[in-house]
Specification:
Arc Repressor Mutant, subunit A; 5 strands; two-stranded antiparallel ribbon; 2 domains; three-stranded antiparallel sheet
Length: 167
Amino acid sequence: MNKDLQNSSQVTDFLGKAFIKMPRKLLNQSLHPEKKKCQLARIYMALITLSFFRDGIVMLGKNKHVCRRGEYVGTYLELARFTAISLGSVGYYLKILEMEKLIVLNAVKGGTRIGICNYDLFSGHEPEMNGGQDASAGEAGRRMADVERTMGGRNMQDMNPEERGYA
């Protein structure tokens, strides 16, 4: 029995090496006898599963879209096929998830861009706890703030107090 339990290579071959963290509440809800709760959980789990784990490019027909980490770019029809839920119900459940602030819906040419809020909770990606940024990220942020300030953007975090009108 112990040999069988310790043979992790077979398990890894079967399951693969990439994993997603899934809350137990969501897994339980996907097995719920009430159809609406079950289908809502299945749609959400499908979005988490199908979303990009890193930035990439998606083709929807002849349209090319940049897809960011934690986003799904596709069609309601693809989601309906993947989850075995009717096309009309897919839209209904996505609106519920959006109202609950679990996803963000945006129409794109040929489909929909769906951002998963707090995707890092599912991916196992740990944010930096030291509060510091690496030099390149800090420099990029400063450059972006300069551009926004020059173009009249809404970013006022890097302005001097005199520029803000507080001095």
